[in-house]
Design brief:
The chain has about 625 residues and is α+β, with helices and mostly antiparallel strands. Helices cover about 45% and strands about 20% of the residues.
Length: about 625
Amino acid sequence: MLQEEKRRELRKKAMNLPLHPGVYIMHNKAGEIIYIGKAKALKNRVSQYFGSEKNHEEKVRQMVAHVDWFEYILTDSEFEALVLEASLIKQHTPKYNILLKDDKGYHYIRITREAWPRLSQAKQIADDGATYLGPYVSSWATKESVDEALKIFRLPDCNRRFPQDIGKKRPCLNYYIKQCCAPCLGKISETEYRELVDEAIDFVQGGSAQSVKQLEKKMLEASEKLQFERAARLRDRLQAIRRMADRQKVVANSVEEQDVIALAQGPAAACFQVFRYQDARLCDRESFPMGPVGEPESARREFLELYYSIRSRIPPRVTLDAPAENMDLLEQWLTQKSGHAVHLVVPQKGEQAKLAEMVRSNAAEQVAQTTGRTVRETSALDELGRLLGLKNPPQYIESYDISNLAGEDNVAGMVVFENGRPLKSAYRKFKIKTVAGQDDYGSMHEVLTRRFQEYVQHQDEGEGFGRLPDLILLDGGKGQVSAVRPVLEQFDLQIPLFGMVKDNSHRTRAITGDGGEIAINSHRAAFTLVSGIQDEVHRWAIGYHRQSRKKHAFASSLTQIEGIGEKRAKALLHHFRTVAAIQDATLEELATAPDMTRPAAQKVYEHFHPAAE
């Protein structure tokens, strides 16, 4: 970590910076640029880095630990600082900025030059005699075009060679599901096959609309010439193109041209996903997996700056799944860079909101593959964090529930969910000590007080009670939240705190905080996670209550023995664990147990071993 002396030196230098817009550039000992940022007031922003580490995200702490010196550039406005920052990041690609490299390259559609030509995707032109269509910027769009052409025109995508392999093997599955004309069977002539290839090339070059017109014209000509078999084949191709167009409507929308960008975060990874639309249809998609990005609004702003600094086309509308930092400045910069008005939009409902959610789900899939979690777990944590207004998805969640029977045998259970899964090694049980009767609010206050007293003693360990949660969920409503809030204030802890509210059927209905209830029924992933947490903490607490009540019942049966009071009964149960073990104990074992005397041991022994009549 950064030496304290070096930290003081850098903070002193930062405090002498002007309260003026500009760009700051952080260097390591080798002089390498490791981070570039912008500020509305350089002094305020840069000095924050060299204050208390507790105020920083992990990403920031790591960056600051490697800073040896910094420099800065003054600008006339915050907008100029934004433009300069984007330019410098693109030029230097610092380690601790989100790195985006324009490594898409070019892609081609390859058509072999042989008697039975084949279509495929290629990353570069080779000196092999084949014909290459392109270049195309998008790998995804190129692959989609090739796949569609192969399916529509029923061209083979296997490794068989024609005419050498005709009649040698049985056709593959694609023939039976009508996705291949199966030249291997010899049922199609070389001339007919080449016609299919030519039509496929027209399709990838001109698009589905132009292909439909050409095929309709050919079908009409075939009908007029009474070539009904040929007309039927052309009709089948037309239907295949229209089916493909119907499939694409799933990813179409009412906005002619836009980019839809979403962020998903996991425990150790994040991903930005971009869906690009032209002519109201999805034309490209890009995925940018990366490490933890810290504060989401800042990460979105940084991503947008970098992404559009390396893109030549900027659409008039950019739809985001959630707000980005400095959206007004970003709009101004994008408008200036593109030469036309650009609007950043965060939809709250309707088609566009569903579209943003779909893109976020794709980003969550990438994060899940990176971290080894399921998509559902990643999506649930991300959705819950956004729903509760948290800066980051809650990776470590503690939940509490109180259980008693008419005020007797008051206990509490604590369960922990880490990265969306139960962490049973961290579960804890509490026996209520200071609250008598049925007082759930007082019991919850006691439990959380004891929990954070343990934190104070074990915080250096960083695990168990020595670790602070990202979120606390209480089984109950506003009353429980109000009872626990003073505990957090007492220990000066800024931990998000919410209650889980059930409906009349004892199912999770909403989450409640200081600002009222938040309905979660319509948020499927978050609802499933919270319901699971509430069910688990209730199971854990009520299980401990039944165990405690059973012990209490056993202790009550022991107090019926002469000379055995409640204190001795509890001591016996604590020592021997079960009534059965007490029954099997010898007189000597009973006499040497804690709080026991020889006469009392004799009474207990005689109670379980009555003299035979």
